[in-house]
Amino acid sequence: MPLRVQPVKMRADNTAWLFQDEATGATAFVDPADAAPAIAAVEAAGGRLDLILLTHHHDDHVGGALALKARTGAAILGNAADAHRLPPLDRPVQPGDRIPFGAAGAEVIDTPGHTRGHIAYFLADGPALACGDTLFSLGIGRLFEGTPEEMFESLGRFGGFPDATLVCCGHNYTASNARFALTVDPENADLVTRAAEVREAGARGELSVPSTLGQERATNPFLRAGTAEALGRLRREKDEFKG
Ligand SMILES: [Zn+2]
Predict the structure, then answer these.
(1) Is 114 tagged catalytic?
(2) Could you list which residues have their CB under 5 Å from ion ligand 1?
(3) DSSP character string of 128-189
(4) Is 133 one of the annotated active-site residues of the chain?
(5) Quick check: is 57 catalytic?
(6) 171 given a catalytic annotation
(7) Active-site residue, selected from the candidate residues 61, 82, 118, 125
(8) What's residue 1's pLDDT?
(9) Catalytic residue among 34, 57, 58, 118
(10) Rounded to an integer, what distance in angstroms lies between the CA atom of residue 193 and that of residue 190?
């Protein structure tokens, strides 16, 4: 795999991501909630940082961006449409843009639902999908600013990506998501197996991300919902879930 993909734990359950192109050494960091763990991860990977990629404006995704830039000289990229509520952008981007990075670059995907200006980045070299708070392992983000229809369409934009795509999501909510998913789809053997693996990983203190899109297609009830209405119903049930 020409792309090195590394989760970087932040705050209670945030996962930021370090992507390093092994051929050139080019490095990108996704969603630095805080600068200190981001800087430590960059230094452990050789000290070079080219790009800071932001998925959306929430503080637990952008809080460390300016300090990380000050330390490394990396350029900050984010959605031009949300520039007014993001840290100052060196390169405003738009859905459909291809950002130069490694051989294949990073494609900007329009993913409103959690927030209006949310975007994701698809790196075909991984393949890896930095999807912020859109898709989680076994769940999705809350619909703070968008509708079930928007989230359904956003998730649909991942439909053409390969099963092997690493799902580099913004939080490790997998254990709680697994408990809810089992109430929705208790007969799903792949989900039962995955939920057991998630419990075991948690007991060892390990992250349960990244998963792959293939795993999510087999186990994630929100990706399997079929319609925006069904997705909205599941999201409301999950909002109430006390598992
Ligand atoms: Zn968020």
Answers:
(1) yes
(2) 58, 133
(3) EEEEETSEETTEE---SSS-HHHHHHHHHTTTTS-TT-EEEESB--HHHHHHHHHHH-TT-H
(4) yes
(5) no
(6) yes
(7) 61
(8) 54
(9) 58
(10) 5
- Report phi then psi at 172, rounded to 5: -100, 75
Q: How far is CA 87 from CA 6, 79, 94, in A?
A: 24, 11, 16
Q: Which among 2, 15, 76, 75 is positioned nearest to 41, based on CA atoms?
A: 15
- Over residues 142-158, the pLDDT tens digits come to 999 999 999 999 999 99
pLDDT at 243: 76
DSSP one-letter code for 89: P
Query: One of 21, 56, 82, 118 is an active-site residue; which one?
Result: 56
**Calpha distance 195→63 (Å, rounded):** 32
- What parts of the chain have a pLDDT lower than 50? none
Among residues 56, 241, 231, 234, the alpha carbon closest in space to that of 151 is found at: 231
Known catalytic residue at 61: yes
CA distance 156 to 111: 9
Pairwise CA distance, residues 53 & 214, whole Å: 24
- The answer to whether residue 60 is catalytic is yes
Q: How confident is the model at residue 153, as a pLDDT? A: 98
- Of the residues 31, 114, 118, 125, only one is catalytic, namely 114
